[in-house]
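Submission sheet (multi-component)
Chains listed below:
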Amino acid sequence: MPVKTWRRPLDADKVKPPKAEVHLIKDRCKGCGFCIEFCPKEVLEESNEINERGVHPPRVRDENRCALCGFCSAVCPDFAIFTIEKNCQGGC
Amino acid sequence: MTEELPHPYEKFLRKDRIPHIWCEGCGNGIILNCFARALDELNIDLNQVVVVSGIGCIGRVSGYTNTDSFHTTHGRPIAFATGVKLANPELKVAVISGDGDLFAIGGNHFIHAARRNLDIQVICANNFIYGMTGGQYGPTTPFDTWTTTTPYGNIEQAFNLVHLAAACGAVYVARWTTLHTRWLTESIKKALQKEGFSFIEVVSQCPELFGRYNKMETAIKMMQWFKETSEVQHFSDPAKAEITPKRIVVGEFVDIEKPSYGRLLREMKARVAKKK
Amino acid sequence: MTTASVSVEKKGVVRSGRRLFMSGDVACAEGALAVGCRFFAGYPITPATEIAEHMALRLPETGGVYIQMEDEIGSMAAVIGASYAGVKAMTATSGPGFSLMMENIGLALMTETPCVIVNVMRGGPSTGQPTMPGQQDVMQARWGSHGDYEIIALAPSSVQEMFDLTVEAFNLAEAYRVPVFILADEIVGHMWERITIPDAESIKIVNRKKPTVSPSNEFAPFKPDEEDLVPPMAVFGEGYHFHATGLTHDERGYPRTESAEAQTKLVQRLCNKIRKNKKKIIRVESAMLEDAEVAVVAYGIAARAALSAIRKARATGIKAGLLRPVTLWPFPEEQVAQVARRVKVIVVPEMNCGQIVREVERAAKETPVIFLPKLGEEPHKPDEILDTIRGRLK
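Outcome: structure written.
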């Protein structure tokens, strides 16, 4: 469930949430919809394109919303999606 | 968003066999995912892992893991694993199989391997049905559900697998659903490292058959059912943890220490060697 | 580990030195240990229980493992598991257990698992007569599991052969990656005779071929060598990460349930593996056959009476000879055919209602074959066989 905090965390200036890259291996997707349904930040939605398997793979709505929880990656039965932390050395 | 990077768990999979044959939204893929993650986080030597599976949809899992693996006859992966583990105790033997394979035809081997406290890990993909053959009932099919061989409703009571495993003497017993990916991975890690017979029941979705036959036609609907009815309760009484349409108790039920069969066998052989 | 140098007292059998007195079942177990068997999974069943008991006693001494599984089905599965983990493995049973093992014998065949299965045959069918001899499972050894395949089966007829043929069985199993059967019977299993245990150095030991390539994507666990059609065997824990399945598979071991070509290729190779190497596998022994006019074809305990009978026959001037198949499967059809061409009649005594006699009839073609059945506790009396010989020659 998406969690909304009722106040701004005290260390919000010191701790920066990580930036994520959402990677899709589109042709592996079988269209079960788990990643879309269970993403706590509603980062994904069903795309209009059709992949090799004849289904609509997900597409990223807004990569900035991703909190790198990794649930999409963990719950995908087909190894079709994973997230990695963006290297923000030079600023993101 | 790019597509060039490989999936971080590629090395645990036989690349030439992916995508696997399981249906869209099948829980088996999630179990494989969690298993791969557990191997990854433990940094286990893959040369020492043997995956053994029986017959059923989940039985195909041994053909997808990039480890030594064996696909046995129906119901016999635990007996096969007994031979493997005793012949080479250095190997980590994981049996991943289904509810029918492990508890119907294979029930006898399960109770005896647990009784012996054989040092193997058994992961049961419990989808409440015989999927591979088209959706017949099995020993974990809930009372009154429709399957192709219970067209008037199932009149048999289902096993409470965690109760059965605990009663037989397993040293680690846990139950999770495929929605509890993180918990499941942690349990698998624990089981792989724990000496003795570990059993993890994974309540898994078969949307194509069990779901469709019982008013949960999509995988997401089945996962919603898991979400709404599961309660995490650690070390509750496994005897009271039967799965009902309204309540799935998940968590760890048993985590005790007992010498494994292998340890007792080694000690016995040492005694025999000393006598000579 | 030399068997001859251990002296242990059990049930009055003093074992020290090389010429010993023991029962067939114990000799079988000692033969297995001598050739390197270090895993036994079984279930007690009359009259094979003594093999399990002796293995339970001796395996821990040799560093091996004895496990009494919950049933024969599990025993056979455990044997395959141990073999795939790199250890020579066996089980021992009788008729009812043999039936239970059939499905997993098929798995051993399909996955080309070297292993030895001893069936100390008793009176059947079903529970039958557990303490009485029989030769009623001979066809079952050949055809008992479903599907098409070839097996190797040896029939000992003495305590010495219980030792020697068990050694040979393991060697054949390792050479051809196939389950090999010892088809003994309750008499050969339970009788005591003098036996010479060879020095450890003189026992020939054959081990499974190992892969010549190191672990890599190129390794195909079921790719046969051309000369003998037998694939080199990788075992668990060596880094090959191979997959083996009871489903029809290709050379990489992956299931090929959709391909007629895969089915043809695999199943025919499993059969040809034995058929092509028949000459190296088949063994027969003969006595007084050179000028024989009547041949007795007998195996196991029946061969002991047959030998006595033909000696008595020769003493009265009848030219009788004995052909004793040591290998029951593959059946020595050429040897039987050759003998059939030279003799007037063949007599086949068996302790069943007609099993190997069918193979003899097939190979003997026009030569008449007389079947002499015997069921129950007594094996054939030599005089019974002699009377049949005399009767036919009138």
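Remark: The mean pLDDT of chain A is 90.
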